[in-house]
Design goal:
The protein is of the alpha/beta class. The chain contains eleven helices and nine strands.
Length: about 280
């Protein structure tokens, strides 16, 4: 198998762009928010000596084409797309890694397609609806959406990064491939603020289904996210499922800032049952 392949998959209402690295048991990476498959190239390279790593551009983002103008993001539909990708690449069950909004989609997939999933790592899901009092977090997202509507994408991006303790400053010396990915992601923020952020944030995971008959779930929280709003939202998922959260390297973008450590943490989490 070539080290890296780019493919497409026709599904209902869209043609998905996806990428594959390496060979071995299948890992599917579900991007979060405005991300696409290219964001995970470094992580995939680290894992590709022992796994087949697949990631994709969700509807509304980058190179996936939809038959009509995409409307508000539908978590069920994106999870259906992931199930179709698994079916087209061996049928599963697959290891699943979802980050941020992609973790919300991973939780939906695990609840609705349990036989497609071997283990799910839900990395920092923004599951505000599982908080004891979600209203403050909801108010924050509504305010961010209003900033986008009133002042545009750049103002909303600045507000989002500041509120979540993230640094959005681009590296002026980034390699051409990384710069290309960075440019694509920048173009996805319009859709995410307009149609993706609120549906992903207000999605309530089906806790009952996830407790009964779902695959093993790892709720991963970055050591650099302690004290940030995402920590409480992610911990709420673990609490509702009755499991302990797992510390992962870095912050919300730990898969980029500490690729080696993150790949090692993923590998251990996927194979945890073998260590018991």
């Amino acid at each position: 198998m070539p080290a890296h392949q780019t493919k497409t998959l026709p599904v209902a209402g869209a043609t998905l762009h996806y990428e594959i690295w390496g060979s071995g048991p299948l890992i599917v990476i579900i991007p979060g928010g405005p991300q696409d498959a290219g964001v995970f190239a470094g992580l995939a390279d680290q894992l590709s000596d022992r796994y087949t790593v697949l990631s994709f551009d969700p509807r509304g983002n980058s190179r996936t084409m939809t038959d009509t103008q995409p409307g508000d993001l539908d978590v069920d539909v994106i999870a259906d797309d992931v199930a179709a990708l698994i079916a087209a690449n061996g049928g599963g069950p697959a290891f699943i890694f979802g980050t941020s909004g992609g973790a919300q989609i991973g939780l939906n997939l695990a609840a609705r397609y349990p036989t497609k999933v071997s283990v799910l790592i839900a990395h920092e899901p923004p599951s505000m609806m599982l908080l004891a009092d979600p209203e403050p977090a909801l108010a924050g997202d509504r305010a961010l959406h209003e900033t986008y509507r009133r002042d545009g994408v750049e103002a909303a991006m600045g507000q989002f990064l500041a509120e979540n303790g993230l640094d959005g400053t681009p590296d002026c010396d980034m390699p051409p491939k990384v710069a290309e990915t960075f440019g694509r992601i920048g173009g996805n923020f319009e859709y995410w603020f307009a149609h993706g952020m609120l549906p992903l944030s207000t999605y309530r995971p089906d806790v009952e289904a996830l407790r009964n008959g779902a695959p093993r779930i790892v709720v991963a929280i970055g050591t650099g996210s302690v004290g940030q709003p995402i920590e409480a939202m992610s911990q709420a998922v673990a609490d509702q499922l009755g499991i302990k959260s797992t510390a992962f390297p870095g912050d919300h973008m730990g898969f980029e800032s500490d690729v080696d450590g993150f790949a090692a943490a993923m590998t251990y989490a996927f194979l945890e049952d073998r260590h018991d």
